[in-house]
Write a structure and sequence with these properties.
With 95 residues, this protein is an alpha+beta fold. The chain contains one helix and five strands, in the order E-E-E-E-E-H. A hairpin with a 5-residue loop joins strand 1 and strand 2.
Length: 95
């Protein structure tokens, strides 16, 4: 991810990079730090996805994450493996 912001907040913009080298622009729409939830919009040309993230404590320690995605169905389906990879990195233990 690339942005000039130090923290995510509504209105923050930047670019996110996928494992396939694809770069897409994003805009953060909502952030609820207390609930550990945020919504952002990513777009590549006319294709736009809206992503809702949530991170919660897992039983016994660690974290769980949840993602909801809305957009054109073929794009959502193709994004699934990318999302699984990215979410795994989000909650992975620090090296």
């Amino acid at each position: 991810m690339e942005t000039d912001a130090g923290r995510i907040a509504p209105g923050v913009r930047g670019r996110v990079f996928s494992y396939a080298g694809v770069r897409v622009r994003f805009t953060v729409e909502r952030v609820d730090e207390e609930q550990r939830r945020w919504t952002w919009r990513v777009g590549l040309g006319p294709l736009v996805l809206r992503l809702g993230h949530e991170v919660t404590a897992a039983p016994g320690g660690g974290s769980r994450t949840r993602l909801t995605v809305s957009g054109p169905l073929p794009v959502v389906v193709l994004y699934r493996p990318v999302a699984a990879w990215a979410l795994g990195r989000l909650v992975a233990p620090a090296p």
